[in-house]
Amino acid sequence: EAQVTQNPRYLITVTGKKLTVTCSQNMNHEYMSWYRQDPGLGLRQIYYSMNVEVTDKGDVPEGYKVSRKEKRNFPLILESPSPNQTSLYFCASSRRVGDIQYFGAGTRLSVL
Amino acid sequence: QKEVEQNSGPLSVPEGAIASLNCTYSDRGSQSFFWYRQYSGKSPELIMSIYSNGDKEDGRFTAQLNKASQYVSLLIRDSQPSDSATYLCAVVGAAGNKLTFGGGTRVLVKP
């Protein structure tokens, strides 16, 4: 089954404790991206990757890191989480940027 | 000015009526346009994609694109309570490397 898998689905952490949210797709997609969704602000892109070892900043990259060492994986790293990073996060993938995006189920993160 | 703008709603429509959603975008060179539906707490799912001016129909959904006026719309015919959700407009800019979402329009279909 074609899918984008995010883990964990729910995470509660404390300020400053490094965390990683994993994202994996099994569709051999080249394009992957991370979004955060906050009430009234819609989906905002954090980082995207056009292919392996190619990543670029989206609209709200501050406080986040990503890597794309393999085509299927695109982890999101919060080196020092802060309460303003409490949000719902989605990973997405597609064959190319102008193609249909397939979304993961989402990760609800709370930073205390 | 936001790159992709939508009325946040809620848009309230009676069951069986037509829901009309609009989206405007600022990048005149944009080439790819999408409508996603998102139920509360769930991930977005694609409803329609449209790339050329004019109308594109798929079941009860019709997407309309007007590049000269920089807007894309979605019509939902014979609206059902199950259509109650937030509808997100998404646009790929002229540079072709970025997908930008609008804030979404919340639709409520009342029985």
What features would you describe in this structure?
The complex is a heterodimer of chains A (112) and B (111). Chain A is an all-beta fold and 112 residues long. Helices cover 0% and strands 51% of the residues of chain A. Chain A has strands spanning 4-7, 10-13, 19-25, 31-38, 42-51, 54-57, 65-66, 76-78, 87-94, 102-103, 107-111. In chain A, strands 2, 4, 5, 6, 9, 10 and 11 form a seven-stranded mixed sheet that branches. The radius of gyration of chain A is 13 Å and the shape is globular. Chain A starts with a strand and ends with a strand. Chain B is an all-beta fold. Chain B is 0% helix and 55% strand. Chain B is built from no helices and eleven strands. In chain B, the strands form two sheets. In chain B, strands 2, 4, 5, 9, 10 and 11 form a six-stranded mixed sheet that branches. In chain B, β4 and β5 (45-50) form a beta hairpin. The radius of gyration of chain B is 13 Å and the shape is globular.
Largest sheet of chain B: 6 strands, mixed
- Write down how many β-strands of chain A occur, each being a DSSP E stretch of 2 or more residues: 11
- Class based on secondary structure composition and strand pairing of chain A: mainly beta
Give me the number of helical elements of chain B: 0
Chain pair forming the biggest interface: A-B, 22 and 24 residues
Helix content of chain B: under 10%
Total beta strands of chain B: 11
What Rg of chain B do the Cα atoms give? 13 Å
Fraction in helix of chain A? under 10%
The backbone outline of chain A, from C-alpha atoms, is globular
Beta content of chain A: over 45%
Shape, per Cα inertia axes of chain B: globular
Order of helices and strands of chain A: EEEEEEEEEEE
The mean pLDDT of chain A is 94
What's the number of helices of chain A?
0
